[in-house]
Amino acid sequence: MKTSHHILAECRYTRRIWDLTAIWIAQPSLRLNAWLLSSNAIEWWTYITTILDSPRKALRCLTLLIMWEIWKERNARVFNRHENSTTTLMTKIREEAFAWLVAGQKT
User: Fold this and answer.
1) Rounded Cα–Cα distance for residues 43 and 32 (Å)
2) pTM value?
3) Deepest of 63, 88, 105, 106, by most Cβ within 10 A of its Cβ?
4) How far is it, in rounded angstroms, from Cα 78 to Cα 58?
């Protein structure tokens, strides 16, 4: 049985998404080799979103967005037998992050 921790942080596809995200936002602490071992999703998420010298609120919003997109990808694979490449999912994540940014801007 696959756990939420496995789906969000441990599977090969997901790990590639986190590495690409780390490169995209220039946040090396999101790279796999910077992660501490964790036994569950909450412990893992708390660790990666409480990194020193990073805007905590923005990082938490982004990680939640990525987790949501990974979860939707998982559901598409399980229920619709449709798989996206990591490139396609990263494009979706970037577009959605931009939409969130625009929606939260104050004029």
Assistant:
1) 15
2) 0.84
3) 63
4) 30
